[in-house]
From TrEMBL:
GO cellular-component term (any): plasma membrane
Protein name from the UniProt record: Conserved putative secreted protein
Primary location class: membrane
Organism of derivation: Amycolatopsis japonica
Alphabetically ordered keywords of this record: Cell membrane, Membrane, Transmembrane, Transmembrane helix, Transport
CDD domains xrefs: TM_PBP2
Localization of this protein: Cell membrane
TM ranges: 9-30, 99-122, 134-157, 177-196, 235-262, 282-307
């Protein structure tokens, strides 16, 4: 098992290295001169050349890449082409907001999907089980930003129970922080929970037909008892795959939800940087998002080995 984990760590490191090269080259080939964009169309050629040297973009691409990735490994993402401020501190602050949102959204999705999917599987030939499956199908068709708009209209505009947007740091006011996090987390979690419910239902249905569960029931255990004692761990193996994909989707989907609820997260920073053509900031943000997705895949691979003993000796 240790060898497998070490091997996956090596694959993760190699993937991050390749991803950093791809992100850097993609930003390097985009049309437009960052120095010209920062100075405006009326800047003189001499001033543009001076600014290019100040930004370091007049050097060979190989030199630029190693300087950039070397700084990233030390937590230095460089200075913004537009504001001239350091990117690293702002990126760290924004990442914290996004992680709170993604974590809360995934918690909501799990709280919905696990009981709803299990119930729909156990009652799959009953009216109530069919109703749960139908509701999850409707939830799959609703995009997260639309769910956010509907939630704001109901709970913020009409009922006035929760704020429609904004962000309060948890250390400043924990109560207001939780109130402001509810609607964004629900808009992410309800949609992803509906998708995950379908997979939980399929995994549990497949497990219910296994011989060892029939044996457990023949010994006197009720269906739910047999499932909880012997079936859920096996059902969790395929669900973990989808859970990893959903977590990656939440990380990327947070970009739009942050805009809807005016949250100062990584998504808002990315959209602002794209609008102002601050390519160095975009480069750092995209790299962080890619590394986040790769880390999620790495954790999923490790969980496979933990959940399924057959993979440890294969």
């Amino acid at each position: 098992m240790t060898v497998k984990i070490v091997r996956r760590v090596a694959i993760l490191v190699a993937s991050v290295l390749v991803a950093s090269i791809v992100v850097f080259l993609f930003m390097a080939v985009l049309p437009g001169d960052p120095a010209q964009v920062a100075l405006g169309v009326n800047a003189t050629p001499e001033l543009v050349a001076k600014t290019r040297a100040e930004f370091g973009i007049d050097r060979p691409l190989v030199t630029q890449y190693f300087d950039w990735i070397g700084g990233v490994l030390q937590g230095d993402f460089g200075r913004s082409y537009v504001t001239r401020e350091e990117i690293g501190p702002a990126l760290t602050d924004r990442l914290g907001v996004t992680l709170w949102l993604v974590g809360a959204g995934m918690l909501v999705a799990l709280l919905i999907a696990v009981p709803a999917g299990t119930f729909a599987a156990v009652r799959h030939r009953k009216a109530d089980g069919t109703a749960v499956s139908g509701l999850s199908q409707i939830g799959v068709a609703i995009p997260a930003f639309l769910a956010g708009i509907i939630l704001v209209q109901i709970f913020a505009v009409q009922l006035r129970w929760l704020p429609s947007g904004g962000w309060t740091p948890p250390v400043q006011d924990p109560g207001e922080f939780l109130r402001g996090l509810v609607l964004p987390a629900l808009s992410l979690g309800l949609v992803q929970g509906a998708v995950l419910t379908r997979y939980v239902r399929s995994a549990v249905l497949d497990t219910l037909g296994q011989d060892y569960l029939r044996t457990a029931r023949s010994k006197g255990l009720r269906p739910f008892q047999a499932l909880f004692r012997h079936g859920l761990r096996n059902a969790a193996v395929p669900v973990v795959t989808v859970l990893g994909l959903q977590l990656s989707t939440l990380l990327i989907g947070a970009v739009v939800v942050e805009r809807v609820f005016v949250l100062p997260g990584l998504g808002s920073m990315l959209l602002d940087s794209v609008a102002s053509r601050d390519l160095l900031s975009v480069q750092g943000i995209v790299l962080v998002l890619v590394v986040g997705v790769l880390l999620v895949n790495f954790v999923v691979d490790v969980l496979y080995t933990v959940l399924d003993p057959r993979l440890r000796g294969s």
